[in-house]
User: Which sequence fits this backbone?
């Protein structure tokens, strides 16, 4: 049977958020970004432009970096979602990527950072040894108004280099 | 910026999707990857009463290779197409895909969705036009195939009727001894092109043109083909390249906007057309030798 939900009705949306089963209600027009923040209270995902330009709202949906302002919550029913909250197990146990961001001044205000980190997770899993041009091409999907991107590129390169020496 | 309220339907088959379209007509709107439509909904540039989400339809997520074309279903994502080796058969499509949006938007955006959206500076409509491809449309009553040149009408406007769904894009496979090229000029990687150009050149063993197809995007309300009829059977000399550059600047109507003047776009149209023909020519020659 084809699912049909009227404009005013709320539907129960079930997702796996960072490994935990979660549920909340949304009307069809609710953006996935708003659902994560205002219904599930996962505020790590930021919202900048709401029209697919800045990349701040990027999370992993079934392993892929996707802009959550360009998806409605109702479309994500049943999805496996990973957000920045799922990266570090505690504030003093950052992932290698997060530590490299900290060390290389890859963030200042940090508004863009959660989205960029999530893109990097997929990107580095697919391409363990990217060159700088590939890194910059991937980063073109994110706007950062603070850093000039240089520190971000350096952080990613450092993670790549560390991985290649540790596996060598 | 939140979308206006809409009802949501999620068909599981093409039949259900075209059924919903037939029922709602102009009030219904199909969403595939939503990487263009999502922004338009949030900005309330479009306010459909019913959003028809085709993302969970199985039968549209396939790429099928036929004898003379590759058929790309309505929900094939750009990133999946890029990773699919069978797209070697359609090199112009492969060459254009990395220019479409960003890594993150290609994760969700579809090939057919970009064609349906018909932005005048978008890459995939241009590539489909130059390849001589077509679009398969289905309604409750019938299926029809429309050539790209007839499909793209104007800015965000196509020959699709209100009750029709794009079920696939049909991409001709490149003939032997054919070279291709795709290039665009944009301020920032991933932005819509200020001017984009694409070419396919097929040569015979005597280095003469069997087929030459050159197109431009970003220079008017829809992608256009440059008139190349007089070059068939000829060798692509420097004189012919000059003529292509001149032809590219004729009969186009680019806009003035914040990014570029109409004059600049007209100039670039000639430069880019020449560039892609030259590159396609060299690729075709290396294929002949
Ligand atoms: S808030 Fe989603 S891309 Fe800017
Ligand atoms: S750190 Fe401020 S926007 Fe990137």
Assistant:
């Amino acid at each position: 049977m084809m699912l049909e939900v009227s404009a005013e009705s709320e539907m129960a949306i079930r997702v796996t958020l960072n490994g935990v089963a979660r549920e909340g209600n949304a009307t069809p027009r609710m953006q996935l970004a708003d659902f994560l923040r205002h219904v599930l209270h996962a505020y790590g995902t930021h919202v900048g432009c709401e029209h697919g330009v800045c990349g701040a709202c990027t999370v992993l949906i079934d392993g892929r970096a996707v802009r959550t302002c360009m998806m409605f919550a109702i479309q994500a029913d049943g999805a496996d979602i990973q957000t920045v909250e799922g990266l570090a197990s505690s504030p003093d146990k950052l992932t290698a990527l997060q530590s490299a961001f900290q060390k290389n001044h890859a963030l200042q205000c940090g508004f863009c950072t959660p989205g960029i980190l999530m893109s990097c997770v997929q990107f580095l899993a697919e391409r363990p040894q990217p060159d700088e041009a590939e890194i910059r091409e991937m980063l073109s999907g994110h706007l950062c108004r603070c850093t000039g991107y240089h520190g971000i590129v350096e952080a990613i390169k450092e993670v790549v280099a560390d991985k290649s020496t540790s596996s060598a | 910026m939140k979308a206006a309220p809409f009802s949501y339907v999620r068909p599981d088959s093409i039949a259900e999707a075209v059924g919903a379209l037939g029922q709602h007509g102009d009030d219904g709107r199909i969403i595939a990857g939503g990487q263009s439509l999502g922004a338009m909904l949030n900005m309330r540039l479009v306010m459909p009463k019913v959003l028809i989400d085709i993302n969970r339809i199985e039968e549209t997520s396939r790429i099928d290779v036929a004898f003379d074309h590759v058929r790309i279903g309505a929900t094939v994502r750009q990133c999946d197409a890029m990773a699919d080796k069978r797209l070697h058969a359609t090199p112009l499509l492969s060459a254009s895909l990395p220019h479409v949006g960003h890594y993150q938007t290609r994760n969700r955006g579809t090939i057919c969705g970009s064609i349906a959206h018909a932005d005048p500076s978008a890459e995939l409509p241009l590539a489909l036009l130059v390849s001589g491809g077509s679009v398969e449309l289905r309604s409750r009553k019938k299926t029809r195939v429309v050539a790209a040149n007839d499909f793209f009408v104007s800015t965000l406007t196509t020959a699709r009727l209100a009750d029709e769904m794009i079920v696939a894009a049909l991409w001709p496979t490149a003939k032997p001894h054919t070279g291709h090229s795709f290039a665009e000029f944009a301020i920032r990687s991933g932005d819509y092109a200020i001017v984009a150009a694409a070419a396919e050149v097929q040569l015979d063993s005597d280095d003469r043109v069997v087929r030459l197809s050159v197109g431009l995007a970003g220079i008017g309300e829809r992608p256009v083909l440059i008139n190349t009829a007089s070059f068939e059977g000829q060798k692509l000399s420097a004189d012919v390249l000059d003529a292509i550059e001149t032809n590219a600047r004729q009969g186009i109507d680019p806009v003035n906007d914040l990014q570029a003047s109409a004059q600049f776009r007209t100039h670039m149209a000639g430069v880019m057309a020449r560039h892609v023909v030259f590159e396609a020519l060299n690729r075709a020659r290396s294929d002949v030798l």
Chain B touches chain A at residues 1-12, 16, 20, 31, 34-35, 38-39, 42-43, 49, 51, 53, 55, 79, 101-105, 107-108, 188-190 (CB under 8 Å). The mean pLDDT of chain B is 95. Residues 7-53 of chain B form a domain with the Uridine Diphospho-n-acetylenolpyruvylglucosamine Reductase; domain 2 fold (CATH 3.30.43.10).
